């Protein structure tokens, strides 16, 4: 397969280039030390997954202390000056992280006894922890989320100077920093708890899957399934990126990981660079809402709502399917419009050979879902999934994972989890200040007042707030921010609890492909050599379902598999037909390049079909069916059939 080999080499070069300047070089004695520490951290978390973690605040403190040490050793102060060894400031940050962590660990009984009466050491170390969290986040995820959290700190301190309903009594430094440091409502709150209990383990699981050969198998399988059809390479990119994106927990990280293979392949076969980048950005972003992992946001949602993780996964299944179905049809119609064909069969992996050589890679994923259905915790379920992945790697000589491979997989998984952990720690600062000041209730009241108490009017406001607050923030952190500030307003106005939280997750995730700031689109554009704004526009078109479906499942719970079997089947069938209509409307092609005036009617009819009421379905069916019929008649009258 010469084309695929060439693309694979290009992808490996691009991955190395992408990592260069972000991490220090993990080679030599320094690299061995980092690997040893990271592997030890992974083993500790696997131990707690099986036997259970210690008391919540202590466990989260240990988790952060260990990962903070790695962050300051692995990530340089400035990306433009990457040294091969940590400097004095890095080592100082490591030492201070250990001091802050051990102080809380060793003095927990005394701290609990004087709850509400912090001493000077509590205040100083609390302030130090906040600064260390900011520095760790700056090195890993950048400035946006830090700036947001600083604004919340200022809001908590200068509350008396705030206008109108935003005003509050104001809190002193002696109250703010101990609150963030010594309670489970601040830095060591739910976000970091989810990072410690679930996210790190699932990222480690993804690393084991990849090292066992599953990544190559799913890439080859997606190419074997769709590569030879119209738009095949782009369809393969959607399948591959969706699978990987569900595990990574970051749209941008997924673009860098999978896009280095998929984008050059699409460009090589004639796809426009902006379109190729848009496809990758769309699929990578969609992975964040794809069960079973959903970029780890599902675990946070389960904690926030007090619902079983399984309920979240089931409810999100149909909307995620509709998202990728629309992407599939858009690719199909775009390829027909531009006359793009698939790869030659001789350039593609053989489907039968691919399946026979790797069908067992589905076993860990199936086992994970089965264990969750049987009531095991996500942590223990993923523990067994990792064990079975290691065992399955021994089915083929070239993928067998020995002690050295396992050791490096453990370390690699922890290093990949550092960015998410830093984002969760900063998110804890935001949540802590919202809780302390009561801002969440005030924000909800503001939305309620602006919408005059009408849910329908509140939804666009919530959408705009979610898109704005989700810009430049990793998936897990943006969900936490939105769940605290925005979702309560929808629930107060009568939206179902789970539907409201999925609504804000969808639009928070959409921020990654929404111009002008969509970071996933920017990352994909960089790989493709395309215009970022044009890439964002293409990604927005590809992901249009994610801007429509949330409104529909708020009023039509059947899309969340909540209703009678007849209601669920009817809503699914009409929504799937709507995906075809949306794909054709956005690309301007069905069986031919359609007149422009057909497209708005087709779009409106498709939106109506996604609404679950019978009357809207009838009107939508008439519009979509009518346009499709006119297109077929026009094609036949030209003699093009």
Structure description:
The chain is mainly α. Among the domains are: 198-418, no CATH class; 563-641. Helix content is 74%, strand content 0%. It contains 31 helices and no strands. The protein has helices at residues 2-19, 28-51, 56-74, 88-106, 108-113, 120-140, 144-157, 173-182, 190-211, 214-226, 232-248, 251-268, 273-286, 297-305, 309-338, 351-358, 362-373, 378-392, 403-416, 418-437, 439-450, 455-469, 475-485, 487-492, 497-510, 519-528, 532-542, 545-555, 565-587, 598-610, 614-638. α10 runs antiparallel to α11, α11 runs parallel beside α13 and α23 (475-485) crosses α25 (497-510). The longest helix has 30 residues, at 309-338. The radius of gyration is 25 Å and the shape is globular. The two termini are 35 Å apart.
Which structural class matches the secondary elements? mainly alpha
Assembly classification: single chain
Count the beta strands.
Answer: 0
Mean pLDDT: 85
SS summary, helix count: 31
Content of β-strand = under 5%
Helical proportion, percent range: over 70%
Major sheet details: none
How widely separated are the two ends?
Answer: 35 Å
* Rg, Å, rounded: 25 Å
Low-pLDDT segments: 1-21
Name the overall outline: globular
């Amino acid at each position: 397969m010469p084309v695929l080999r060439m693309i694979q080499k290009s992808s490996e070069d691009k991955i190395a280039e992408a990592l260069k300047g972000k991490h220090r070089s993990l080679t030599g004695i320094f690299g061995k030390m980092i690997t040893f520490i990271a592997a030890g951290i992974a083993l500790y978390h696997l131990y707690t997954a099986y036997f259970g973690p210690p008391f919540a605040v202590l466990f989260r403190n240990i988790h952060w202390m260990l990962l903070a040490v790695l962050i300051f050793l692995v990530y340089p102060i400035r990306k433009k000056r990457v040294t091969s060894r940590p400097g004095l400031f890095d080592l100082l940050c490591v030492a201070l992280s250990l001091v802050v962590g051990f102080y809380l660990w060793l003095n927990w009984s005394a701290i609990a006894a004087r709850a509400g009466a912090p001493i000077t050491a509590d205040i100083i170390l609390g302030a130090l922890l906040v600064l260390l969290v900011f520095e760790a986040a700056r090195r890993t995820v950048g400035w946006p989320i830090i700036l947001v959290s600083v604004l919340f700190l200022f809001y908590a301190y200068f509350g008396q100077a705030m206008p109108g309903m935003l005003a509050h009594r104001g809190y002193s430094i002696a109250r703010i920093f101990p609150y963030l440091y010594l309670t489970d409502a601040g830095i060591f709150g739910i976000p970091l708890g989810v990072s410690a209990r679930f996210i790190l383990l699932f990222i480690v699981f993804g690393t084991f899957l990849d090292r066992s050969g599953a990544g190559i198998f799913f890439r080859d399988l997606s190419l074997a399934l769709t590569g030879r059809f119209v738009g095949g390479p782009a369809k393969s990119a959607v399948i591959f990126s969706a699978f990987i994106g569900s595990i990574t927990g970051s749209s941008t990280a997924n673009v860098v990981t999978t896009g280095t293979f998929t984008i050059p392949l699409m460009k090589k076969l004639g796809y426009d660079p902006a379109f190729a980048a848009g496809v990758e950005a769309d699929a990578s972003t969609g992975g964040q809402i794809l069960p079973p992992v959903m970029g780890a946001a599902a675990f946070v949602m389960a904690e926030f709502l007090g619902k079983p993780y399984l309920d979240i996964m089931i409810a999100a299944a149909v909307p995620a399917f509709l998202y990728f179905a629309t992407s599939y049809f858009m690719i199909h119609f775009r390829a027909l419009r531009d006359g793009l064909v698939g790869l030659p069969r001789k350039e593609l992996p053989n489907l039968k050979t691919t399946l026979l050589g790797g069908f067992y890679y589905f076993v860990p994923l199936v086992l994970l879902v089965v264990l969750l259905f049987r009531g095991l915790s996500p942590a223990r379920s993923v523990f067994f999934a990792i064990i079975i992945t290691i065992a399955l790697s021994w089915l083929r000589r070239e993928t067998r994972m020995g002690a050295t491979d396992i050791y490096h997989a453990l370390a690699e998984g922890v290093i990949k989890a550092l960015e998410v952990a830093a984002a969760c720690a900063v998110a804890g600062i935001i949540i802590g200040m919202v809780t302390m000041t009561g801002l969440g209730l005030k924000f909800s009241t503001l939305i309620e007042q602006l919408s005059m108490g009408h849910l329908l009017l509140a939804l666009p406001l919530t959408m705009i707030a979610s898109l704005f607050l989700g810009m430049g923030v990793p998936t897990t952190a943006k969900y936490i921010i939105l769940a605290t500030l925005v979702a309560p307003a929808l629930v107060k106005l009568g939206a179902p609890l789970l539907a409201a939280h999925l609504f804000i997750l969808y639009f928070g995730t959409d921020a990654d492909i929404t111009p002008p700031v969509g970071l996933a689109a920017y990352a994909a554009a960089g790989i493709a050599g395309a215009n970022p704004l044009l890439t964002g526009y293409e990604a927005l078109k590809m992901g249009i379902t994610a801007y429509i479906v949330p409104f529909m499942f708020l009023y039509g719970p059947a899309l969340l598999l909540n209703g009678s079997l007849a209601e669920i089947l009817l809503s699914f069938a009409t929504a799937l037909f709507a995906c075809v209509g949306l794909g054709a409307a956005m690309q301007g092609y069905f069986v031919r390049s359609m007149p422009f005036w057909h497209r708005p009617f087709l779009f409106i009819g498709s939106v109506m079909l996604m609404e679950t009421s019978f009357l809207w379905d009838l009107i939508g069916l008439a519009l979509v069916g009518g346009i499709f019929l006119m297109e077929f008649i026009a094609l036949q009258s030209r003699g093009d059939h």
